[in-house]
Amino acid sequence: MIKIDKLSKKFDKENVLNNLSFNIRDNSIYGLVGANGAGKSTLLRIIMGIFEADTGVITIDDDMLSDNYKLKQKLVFVPDDLYFYPGYNLMDMGKYYQSLYENFDMNYFKELASMFNLSLNKKISTFSKGMKRQCALICAIATNCDYMFFDETFDGLDPVIRNTMKKVLINQMNKKKTTIVMTSHNLRELEDICDNLGLLYKGGILFESEIDTIKTNMYKVQISLKGDFDQDDFKEFDILSFKKQGSVATIIVKDKDGKSKRKLEKMHPIILDFLNLTLEEVFIYEMEALGYEFNKFI
Amino acid sequence: MNLTNLFNFKFLKENMKRSKAIMLLCVFLIPVINVISFLMRFVNSSYVTPNIFELSTLSIVGLYIVPIILSITLFSFVYKRKSSDFVMSFPVTRKQIFLSNTLGGIILIIVMNLVNAIFALIASLLLSNVFIDYKMVFDMFLFWSISYIFVFVCTNIAVCLSSNKITTVVVTLLILFLIPFMHTFISYDGFREDANPIIATQCDNEICKPAKYECGGTTCEVNRKKDIYMYTGYTEVNNTNYTVPYSLVAGFLFNIDDNYKINNSLLKMAFLSILYIFIGLILFGRKKFEVVETSFKSDNVHLLVRSLTTVPILCIYYILFINSSIGISDLFTILFLFVLLMTYLIIYDLLTRKKIMNIFKTLASIIVVGIFIIFIGELTRNDETILDVNDIDTMTFADYDNGYTYDRKIINYVISKHIDNTYVENMYDNLDIIINAGKKSYKFQISVTEEEYNYIKDLLNKDKTYLKTIKKVNGNDVFAISIGNDITFVKKNSKLYNKLIESYKKNYNKINEFTDNDYLFNVDFYSYDNYEVKKGHFNIYDDKELMNDIILYYNSEVKEAFNDPEIEIDYYYIGNGDSEEYYSSYNYEYENIDKFIIDNIDEKADISKPYMYIKFNTYDISYNRSSYVFFTNKISELKNIISEYGKLYDDSKDMVM
Q: The complex's ipTM?
């Protein structure tokens, strides 16, 4: 488990991370979402020991990272800005990773390269941006590390490759019990792969939840009742948003106990449609409920 | 302690592998250029006994380039965000990265210097005209290895402190040079006064008073009344054992006369290297990778480093000012120097930060550094030093095997000769003297007649301290012997070589004398000690057998030379031990001299009979000259040949030994 406790980091007197605390449970995929400059990459670099926090502690499996070789063997990081040694081909990079990671699986690496149709002997510098991202990802995945950190994971990948890569990552998590932390400024990229999501804003986690829970606990209702009605008629519900156009109202309901659907049915509505929310919508309504305007964050 | 906690050899191997071209260049470039330059210089030269620096000339330049490039290459990832993220995310701790790279660099430097030493050894073995002591090859390896490692670890510290390549070089230079430079500025008068310091000699006893002292003015006369003799013929000798990178630069740029001991300097560098590795380890552990691609973490550190770089410049400005009187032209000079300094600072800012620092901060930094320099300079400035003869602790005689004496009689006598204005008409020799007075050392030269020379020699031979401290060459340390003032070198392990060594060992306790008379029988012993090639003169005039052996050796070399049918001779000297006459070979009539040599080549000349010699130079296709001497007892035959063509040789004095 990764425990982040009261982490702060300043760059030139500007708070990038501000008293940040949250946990990432093992064997899950954690998505960190935030606008540019929210502190996602800085957080990953601190976890990896590239930067040092001004205050606060990060523990992984109850161990501190500082100059801890054994712990570093459990971690792999793919930064947003990729780097490959000049003149290296994919095989050279694979060998490089193999020499440094004790659990690197060369066969799996070759298998992944073949799956993504990447030439092992071609210089990486001749690859496209998306192919370079694939190279970095498959090198990291083949390390079989317990913790994998991917910054802007799917940047530059086409939709087909993106889906395949997601499957590979899910497979990795399921088979090898890996914990994956990935960041993106695009919520839609992460919603179908992450177990947990955290929204980073001005160096702090503004909102964090398990995706399954937030998705099942919240829904959108289109409803029309006999006669005139307004929001006051729904006082017994936990309503995040109420919008009425003509005689039809669109309501976002938070349903913690699962009884609200039955209660709505008992109101004998003329129209009653239950719609699933996208993750983005969930975030929008949650943020609005907290008094923030979501567009500012993403 | 588990070594894997400190080093990660896999990381090191991969790190080196990725920049193998630069690594190979670092390892082989200097040795290859060294050996090529060595061969080019010496393949066609006459006999040479090169010292460490002649054997590895390029290593001097390489000292300021190779270790810096090596360090920057090994730590190249720290200069780019992408590469620092990539490398630092791998399962290698900061401690392992730093120590592995440091170890890797040190190994490469050792390999480089080993290759350099092997190449030098092979080159010297290939050239029969080059004589070196193999101990020197090892010393050369040690000397350059420690010096290169020192520069390398200094650069490693700079890498930890700065985050772009230019500032890394700047910080390296500051670490290497700033403190020793300031030490020189404060303590070495010769550097600050832009000439030798004015040192008057105070002498209150009769022995040290000069026989003749000419005064040039009232001040001089007033001083003479106080037994102070104005004389500026002393050169201050620097006694501080600076590190090699600074010593080489200081010697070259500031013309500092060094008397430093290389062993002390090497020990100092070895100690500092170890210390700097520890400092580097701590600094790398704390390095802020957030600031990669910029010079330093903050503007203040940038300002501090930039200000430190102006220290040597302002010191030199200060020296310029104290050595000139301020006038209108100097105001223009001040303005010019200020513009020069500002230009430097602007270029520095643009190169390291890509933006120019606030002008007021810049001016403030110049003023602060300027005031500091003036304060230090004025505090430590000596306009005139009076050297009291009684304060002289020791006097070293460089000509007499570097022995020194405390004997007041000798010291006073030599000082009296130094301040004496009497013109030495029959000068016999110039003696190089070094005196130590407190923390300072000065050197000077005195001209002596034969009588004075012998007087000093006799006094020294009676002085126990001197006899204990003379550093005479031990026969076992001799690696080359030349005869006839380096006309030829005696082949190692030849009969003559062994005989000369034996004779030298027997006469070891005698102070050697050197005389230009009968120079063909002068024997010079070359030995190597304390990073220096030393030459010792040896007198064999009382050993007729040895002299005959030398004649035979000369003649055998001539025979060997005449085996070459293509031999070209450009001139002759014909002499009899007292005088020599010159004959140009371009005059075809002298071919009979060649014939005479060839006809008598197997003659066994004898020193106990009247003899003459023909000295000639040969040259090959590359105009490589070699000298040969042919001795003969057939004086009348030789005289007939040369007299056939006019008055060429008039002196009929035959030398009989």
A: 0.85
Q: Are residues A153 and A247 in the same domain?
A: no
Contact between residue A54 and residue B288 where contact means Cβ atoms under 8 Å apart:
no
Are both A146 and A247 inside the same structural domain? Answer: no
Residues of B in contact with A85 (CB under 8 A): 18
> Shortest CA distance to B341 belongs to which of B321, B374, B365?
B365
What's chain A's Rg over C-alpha atoms?
22
User: How is chain B split into domains, by residue range?
Assistant: 3-187+242-288, 475-542, 553-643
Segment B120-150, tens digit of pLDDT: 999 888 888 888 888 899 999 999 999 999 9
Report the DSSP pairing between strands B625-632 and B532-538.
unpaired
**How far B277 CA lies from chain A's nearest CA (Å)?**
18
Q: Which residue of A has its CA nearest to B92?
A: A69
Is A50 within 8 Å of B89 when comparing Cβ atoms? yes
Q: What is the pLDDT of residues B291-312, one digit of tens each?
A: 787 777 778 888 899 999 999 8
Shared-domain flag, residues A204 and A260: no
Element (H, E) at B319: helix B299-322
| Cβ neighbours of A83 in B, within 8 Å | 80, 82-83, 85-86
Q: Tokens 């499996």 identify what position?
A: A61
Q: Are residues A72 and A195 in the same domain?
A: yes
Contact B89 A75 (CB under 8 A): yes
Choose the final residue of a domain: A159, A190, A210.
A210
Which parts of B107-261 are beta strand (E)?
198-202, 228-230, 235-237
Q: Which among A50, A69, A101 is the nearest to B88, CB-wise?
A: A50
- The CA-atom distances, in angstroms, between B306 and each of A37, B169, B341, B577 are 32, 12, 12, 67
For residues A171 and A189, state if they share a domain.
Answer: yes
**Chain A, window 96-125: residues with a beta carbon less than 8 angstroms from a chain B beta carbon:** 96, 99-102
Q: What is the pLDDT of residues A66-111, one digit of tens each?
A: 778 889 899 999 999 999 988 899 999 999 999 999 999 999 999 9
Chain A to chain B Cβ contacts (< 8 Å): 69
**Residue in A51, A82, A102 closest to B290 by CB:** A51
Reference B512, options B549, B555, B478, B556; nearest CA is B478
Q: Report the candidate in B454, B473, B611 with the shortest Cα–Cα distance to residue B538.
A: B473
Whichever domain contains A245, its CATH number is 3.30.70
Do A225 and A101 share a domain, yes or no? no
> Which residue has tokens 């090859």?
B137
Same domain, A38 and A7: yes
Collapse the DSSP code of B572 into the 3-class scheme (helix H, G, I; strand E, B; otherwise coil) and give the result: strand
- Sheet containing strand B235-237, strands side by side: B235-237, B440-448, B429-437, B394-397, B403-405
For an interface test with B, the pick among A100, A101, A104, A149 (most B C-beta atoms closer than 10 Å) comes out as A100
Q: Which one of A76, A83, A101 has the shortest CB-CB distance to B85?
A: A83
Dihedrals φ, ψ of B159, to 5°? -60, -40
Mark yes or no for CB contact B88/A49 under 8 Å.
Answer: yes
Is A200 in CB contact (< 8 Å) with chain B?
Answer: no
Residue B563, helix vs strand vs coil: coil
**A69 and A173 in a common domain:** yes
Backbone angles phi, psi at B534, to 5 degrees: -110, 145
Of B18, B83, B85, the CB nearest to A45: B85
Range(s) of the domain holding residue A21? 2-210
Closest-CA residue to A102 (of A142, A45, A50): A142
Question: Which of the listed residues A161, A178, A210 is the one where a domain comes to its end?
Answer: A210
When divided into structural domains, chain A yields a total of 2
Nearest chain B residue to A103 by CA distance is B91
Residue B383: count of CB within 10 angstroms of its CB: 9
- Give me the CATH number covering residue A194: 3.40.50.300
B351: closest CA among B164, B522, B508?
B164
* pTM of the predicted model as reported, rounded to 2 decimal places: 0.85
